[in-house]
Design brief:
The structure is a single chain. With 217 residues, the chain is of the alpha/beta class. The protein is built from 4 helices and 13 strands. Helices cover 14% and strands 24% of the residues. The mean pLDDT is 93.
Amino acid sequence: MLDKNGIARRIAREVRDGYYVNLGIGIPTLVANFVRDDIQVEFQSENGVLGMGPFPYEGEEDPDLINAGKQTITTLPGASFFDSATSFAMIRGQHVDLTILGAMEVAENGDIANWKIPGKMVKGMGGAMDLVASAENIIVAMMHTNKAGESKLLNKCSLPLTGVACVRKIVTNMAVLEVSPDGFLLRERAPGVTVEDIKKATEGRLVVPSDVPEMQF
């Protein structure tokens, strides 16, 4: 199965030349490290940065340059900084071509829960609800199961929803899946992972084509 970097590397293949991309907190922030060098991509963070680059090397961090998850970042030539009002105007105005988010749960109809676990302290929802309400192209980066081994790809989300029927594609440590009218459509499997493994780890309806290729990087 893939690790977090493997998930990010696979998602990086979905990024196209000229895209404006919002990277959510967690695994999505790693995607900037794996985008092809021969394409031009503008990474946006809702705290007011456009033009993020890869994470800095140890010892080269600038504490004044951070993303929405308070991680230190680098910026590329031509990067710009602006206030939250401008940042969310960009998001709500649908000027972002691709949104990549983490999730605690995703339902077979595309519902997503990624901001709160009842009874546990959380810092807040951040920009997640604005992103899922405005974006038309949402990819979720997540582990297929939780720490207890229970599926995070469900018939119906049990946690408070962030957005309804908004997710288009999910990349996990086990598989690439698309949300279809019939459930999770299995498109690719991670190296060393079988279709049977994915079936056992998926609670929601899983649609399995006759041929499910291994992920390519």
